[in-house]
Amino acid sequence: MTEQFKMDAPATARRLDDMAQGLVGAPLDRPEGPLKVSGTATYANEWQVEGMVHGVMVRAPGNSGRVVLANREAVAQMPGVLAVIQDPRLLRNPAQGTANQAPIQGPEQAAYLGQLIAVVVAEEFEQARHAAQSLKVALENGEVMPVDPATAAVEPQEAKTLDQGDLDGAMAQAAFSVDVTYTTPSHSSTPMEPHASIASWDGEDLTLRGSYQMLKYNRNELSDALGIHPDRLRILSPYVGGGFGSKLGIAPEAVAAAIAAKEVGRPVSVALHRQQVYEATMRRSETTQRVRLAADAEGRLTGLGHDARVSNLPGESFAEPVLQASHFLYAGANRKMSMDLARVHRLCAGSVRAPGEAVGVTVFEGAMDELADKIGMDPVELRRRNIPEKDPESGKGFSSRRFREALDSGAETFGWADRPGVKERREGEWLIGYGMASAARVNVLMESQARVTLMPDGRLRVETDMTDIGTGTYAILGQIAGDMMGLPRDAVDVVLGDTTLPPASGSGGSWGASSSGTSVYLACEAIRKQLAARLEVEEGDLTLKDGMATFDNQTRSLSDILNGDEIAKVGHVQPGDTSEAVRQATFGAYFAEVAVHAASGETRVRRMHGTFAAGRILNAKTARSQCLGGMTFGIGIALTEELAFDPRDGHVANHNLAEYHIPVNADVPQLTVDLLEERDDWANPLQAKGIGELGICGAAAAIVNAIYNATGVRVRDYPATLDKVIAGM
Question: Does 126 qualify as catalytic in the annotation?
């Protein structure tokens, strides 16, 4: 019943190139789109569960000390209040992505200001909120804990250290060199839908309706936190209103809802309010990054260095992997890289969209622009000259790479040849500048399963616990299944987001579509084989289109062949030797035009273009949408987004949408995207690679580089707010 496949060798069949239905790659609409825009798609906190009551989380007022609920008994007597819970199983912070076990637990000791340390449950939400706000939280025996990454204790990350050749010698002998330090602030994922869960028990069995990205891991994390077997736990997450990494691991509200529901004997809903989302979910770590580049007289890199300092809570192993793309993006024989992890008592750092490259490539591409300016070379040409033939550190080949084509195509589409010199173009009070940057993101295949059932009436059902966080999973899996089985898209039902279904890769790391899509592909391939066996023909000689099978000059309907039966198969893909045999990555290039006000330093992005290569594009519309979203995030990184921490106690000072400035409609011009044709046989049988995060990796650098071209001001402290720009002018 299960079709097992391990990716140990290149998958060269490329079957999806010739499927008669022609669904894969087409810019089809998302089938769940009408439900979402009409308000009928049920999100985590919208389920109506009989007898449901409400819980509101309570925060720690400091970052150290033993937590004491001073007036607990009085609050418990307030109208409607059912329980005031401070349970040792409550989470200190969310689990990291793919953790597969509970994160640090225990609300008795505060580790950061804003930590969720208790939950108040009441009949009505307003009663629970009032009681939670009335609860007086005291911290005993607290100390002044470090909150500043610049002065906190550091742990060198030895596993991420590289020293190849002689970088110091290369810098000393270079015809041109740069040695620059950039800083980037913390970012928040800021999904539109806050974190929310509804927990209900049936005896010893728990059902959790939650907003999560990676259900097979989330179930194990939640079961570990509660001390129950995973088989007694079901998570439902059919619709997720954005995650961007913040919903990868199980979060405090889910555990609180489960504990509370058990204690009060009724279903409990717990939703974080917006301030709690900013204070107690996941942040991207701030970074301090030093980049050193050494080049010969012709602009070829002879050495490069990338050193970073990031931060996290004590006890957390995650360190923002800013060096990832620096290992393979450009050539250079002499290479040195290192990372330090500072231990601070701020909210937990973890995966935020495109962890690592989102800020690592951004900084490196700023340094590359500085080198191009020093040499007097076109920034596009500098990058062309330094594309390595093979991975510059391991010597492995690239699985596929259309990096040069992305640079050339993007430059032509944008009109890069018309780029002015520094401070050469002005329109009234506005200084006009062009900037560009490269895009790169590692590619990963993850273990994933899906069940596909061909029904007696010829319809198809796809089932997996995979989630759709707004990325188009419902559409893509239906397209793959429809193509493989020769059925129109509306004859394929896709069911997602339920842990009773086969465990998928989950949505994260840009691996979701290719990993879960491969499992669907494998299941369909197994069904095709069984159909061919019934017809006594070779599977490769079977053509399926519009619900009909053509073979040996005969045509029969699928329902006729099934004769009242159904065929169900599970596809199961596992990563194999191809993950290590070659360097797998996606590539692209950004081009931006900005206008900077000569008097105020205000920057407006006037146009922006991205060209990307990410293997087979499974749906041109959803892929383009992902790139648009990434570039929009890049505008935020470049100009507006920054979590501000109080230097006294480390709390988030701008914990709301009014003061954490994500780009809004007025900030985003008409963005354009080109997707290059590509197949990567080393990636998976679909020849597809991840694209969800590629669109952000370096996007901000194109904008900040354009600010330099317009004004001559080099901003090395992100975001490039007007005060920093005007100070240089």
Answer: no
